[in-house]
Specification:
The complex is a heterodimer. Helix content of chain A is 47%, strand content 14%. Chain A is α/β, with parallel strands linked by helices. Chain A folds into two domains: 14-128, Rossmann fold (3-Layer(aba) Sandwich); 138-262, Rossmann fold. In chain A, the strands form two sheets. Chain A has a four-stranded parallel beta sheet with strand order 2-1-3-4, with helices on both faces. In chain A, helix 11 (194-211) crosses helix 12. The radius of gyration of chain A is 18 Å and the shape is globular. In chain B, helix 3 packs across helix 12 (250-264) and helix 16 packs across helix 20. In chain B, the strands form three sheets. A six-stranded parallel beta sheet of chain B has the order 1-10-7-4-2-3, with helices on both faces. A four-stranded mixed beta sheet of chain B has the order 8-5-6-9. Helix content of chain B is 52%, strand content 11%. Classes of the chains: A alpha/beta, B alpha/beta. Chains A and B meet through helix 1, helix 2, helix 3, helix 4 and helix 8 of A and helix 1, helix 19, helix 20, helix 21 and helix 22 of B.
């Protein structure tokens, strides 16, 4: 098995940014923030413009044929980078954990495994690079972190994201009860079982209201859109932002689900 | 129990909005979940135990026939009679015949999910026998004509108030003004009534948590002691269990017991853990004259040979239910059959059929908490995805299938995909920051706003930024 390329100080690692569909369509500022962070960490960042979807919706819906076909597209687009970084736990888990399970042919499987070794979720990558990120970020306020399910349980992100948040000047990290409970998004689940999904996101919002952070952050835009949508519907003042925005120190864009004049 | 798994969609919808049910289920988080957490914190080697547990179950299931035959030989040596039942109906017929031969009038019964699976009570009652459930929760459900909603806490969906009302209504020969104001008085009444049933029963039926091949013993764990009374007071003890319950040795059983109690109720050990090894021996002071062990297959041999075999590693602790955000929202009855929650969603399509159970594997966000807490590390999300893939392959067309196919078709065409993404990004822009309604997303916007997009895709903005940066 070919090992992932070693981290050579003199040659900045070449990172392929896996933008993810949701960030591309809904919140490009997350991708800009990610690039800023990666460049501050000494990486050379490229964004292949032929990238599309990692195949997660197909994989989770049981359409393995499409998932395999999309996997091949991903390999062809991203294989030549030292690293592939995604600002999403579930997309990174699709590329890193699930793609190798899609293939039975040993050559394809080996290719998928080789690729998987280079894939990182953004915060995991920053932890992997340990201390290289030179970021100017400050945020004075209370921030809670929502553990996305894929990041927490499929990638094992652990305390990494919280430790990164704690490096931000002025930031006070607060915990919400049952922080790693699913928020009820679950991709198509949120529209297939809207009542169950609503009950789940309501529990999440109640826990948030109790903890009363200024900002809820996380590594998963889908979860954040779900929670932000519910918070907004119930008139909550809690803002939702992707962790990349906080780490990059760029909160110029209104929070998720908010209009400019809101804050 | 007659499967009603195809009603999941409408039942779960109703359950998610049922305030009483939500209040009752809330008790799982403060009860089982919190106690399990404490019990595991007190057990430094729990993770090692889980690995051992998984290995024991996997190894045993891979060589099940040998272990079952060893169990049969040892159990018969100890004086038990072993009966093999291929189907649920076969098992019910065997139990009925034993009861007839014993000239039984009344039967007491400990909690057994396999007996629910094969519809044993209904069968015996139709044959004219009076069967009394002796687990407090099961007894309540029997009085109410309901089925269990949890595999270890069958009446978890009921409140104390409902339990009181049921007793006042059903025990109508007692003083209607008696005090049932506390859980203790309710339990006291059940205990007093139950005592007579135990003493007068001709046959006692229990399940088994494990069958130990090394010793020929059946293990029954309870916290109420009702299993022991059902097993030892009547002259005939019938154990109804399934073939996946066998464990090779006593030592391995001890590992599984440590995992079971901690995962189920957060106890280091249940109040009663009994090994039944044959009927009353000549030197025993008491015990039944006969012990029959009915080992039910009911489709498990086929599961064992399939890619869902890992689902048979389950030791029925219920931890995946207690930690599942779906189960704790919709409750067990929404699932429509004996086994609810993540384990039910993975097991029921195999025990029943995929066509009538297809909603169950779908009713999950694949959040992975079930696998995280499973004492024997069953990869439940993987099994749920497997069922989804089988269902996807089985179905000709559905709205969801068409949507996924269209999405995948486009995702394979980057230029077209970029164009589509731009159109969506523009359509979802809003100066209000969010949308109150979005076409085709009523399920979402009924309950929450839909955050607006920034208006232009990242790729489009990036392309422009790079063009600008390039010196001209």
């Amino acid at each position: 098995m070919k090992k992932a390329p070693p981290h050579v100080e003199h040659h900045p690692p070449h990172v392929g940014l896996y933008v993810t569909c949701l960030v591309d369509i809904m919140r490009p500022s997350v991708a800009f923030a990610t690039i800023k962070i990666l460049e501050a960490a000494g990486c050379r960042v490229s964004v292949p413009d032929t990238q599309t979807c990692c195949g997660q919706p197909a994989f989770n819906s049981g359409d393995l044929k499409s998932a395999r076909a999309l996997a091949s597209t991903v390999f062809n687009t991203f294989e030549h980078f030292d690293y592939v970084v995604a600002p999403s736990g579930s997309c990174a888990a699709m590329l890193k954990v699930h793609l190798p399970t899609l293939f039975s042919d040993s050559e394809d499987k080996a290719r998928a495994t080789r690729f998987a070794d280079r894939v990182f979720e953004l915060t995991a990558f920053l932890v992997h690079l340990t201390g290289r990120a030179q970021l100017e970020n400050a945020y004075v306020g209370r921030v809670a972190y929502h553990d996305g399910c894929s990041g927490k349980r499929e990638l094992g992100l652990g305390e990494g994201p919280r430790q990164l948040l704690q490096t931000i000047d002025g930031l006070e990290l607060v915990e919400i009860a049952d922080a790693d409970a699913c928020c009820g998004f679950g991709g198509t689940f949120s529209v297939t079982y809207p009542e169950i999904s609503n009950a789940m996101v309501s529990k999440k919002c109640n826990a948030l209201t109790d903890a009363a952070p200024d900002i809820l952050t996380g590594s998963e835009l889908g979860c954040l859109m779900n929670i932000a949508g519910k918070l907004r519907r119930s008139g909550s003042p809690i803002a939702c932002r992707h962790i990349a925005e906080l780490l990059a120190g760029d909160t110029s864009m209104p929070a998720i689900g908010s209009a400019k004049e809101d804050r | 129990m007659h499967p009603e798994t195809h009603h999941f969609s409408e039942r779960s919808k109703r359950a998610a909005q049922d305030k009483d049910l939500q209040d009752a289920l809330e008790g799982l988080a403060t009860g089982f979940v919190a106690r399990r957490k404490d019990a595991i914190a007190d057990c430094a080697h729990f993770e090692a135990l889980r690995n051992q547990g998984r290995d024991i179950r996997t190894r045993t299931c891979a060589d099940l026939e040998r272990h079952l035959l060893s169990f049969e030989a040892k159990a018969e040596q100890a004086g038990s009679r072993i009966h093999w039942a291929e189907t649920g109906d076969d098992a019910c017929a065997i139990v009925e015949k034993i009861c007839r031969d014993a000239e039984a009038q009344s039967i007491v019964k400990g909690k057994s999910m396999v007996s629910e699976e094969i519809g044993l009570n209904a069968h015996l009652e139709a044959s004219g026998y009076a069967v009394v459930e002796t687990d407090l929760g099961e007894y309540l459900l029997q009085l109410r004509g309901e089925t269990p909603s949890h595999i270890i806490a069958p009446a978890i969906h009921l409140s104390e108030h409902q339990a009181r009302a049921t007793f006042l209504k059903s025990h109508d020969t007692l003083n209607p003004k008696r005090d049932l104001g506390t859980p203790e008085t309710i339990v006291g009444e059940a205990r007093a009534l139950m005592r007579d049933k135990f003493l007068n029963a001709d046959v006692g039926i229990t399940g088994a948590n494990f069958l130990i091949a090394e010793t020929g013993s059946a293990v029954v764990v309870t916290n109420e002691g009702n299993g022991d009374l059902s097993a030892t007071l009547p002259k005939v003890h019938i154990i109804v269990t399934s073939l996946d319950k066998v464990v090779p040795t006593l030592g391995e059983t001890s590992i599984l017991l440590q995992l079971l109690a901690r995962s189920a109720t957060g106890q280091a050990m249940t109040a009663y853990t009994t090994l039944f090894t044959g009927p009353r021996h000549s030197t025993d002071l008491d015990g039944p004259d006969a012990c029959h062990i009915i080992i039910v297959d009911n489709g498990r041999s086929d599961i064992l040979a399939s890619d869902a075999a890992e689902v048979l590693n389950c030791i029925r602790c219920g931890a995946c239910l207690n930690h599942c955000p779906i189960y704790t929202t919709v409750g067990g009855h929404s699932y429509g059959w004996v086994y609810p929650g993540p384990i039910g969603a993975a097991l029921n399509p195999a025990l029943l059929d995929l066509a009538s159970t297809r909603d169950l594997p779908d009713a999950s966000t694949l959040c992975g908490r079930c696998e995280e807490v499973c004492p024997v590390k069953i990869p439940l999300p993987k099994l749920l995805r497997q069922w989804r893939a089988k269902d996807y392959a089985r179905r000709q067309t559905s709205r969801k299938k068409l949507a996924i196919m269209a999405w995948a078709w486009m995702a394979k065409r980057p230029t077209l995909y970029a164009l589509w993404a731009s159109v969506i990004a523009r359509a979802l822009k809003s100066r209000h920051g969010a949308h109150h309604t979005v076409p085709l997303a009523k399920g979402w916007t009924t309950h929450r706003d839909f955050p607006a997009s920034e208006g232009q895709t990242f790729q489009a903005q990036w392309r422009r930024a790079k063009k600008k940066a390039r010196p001209s």
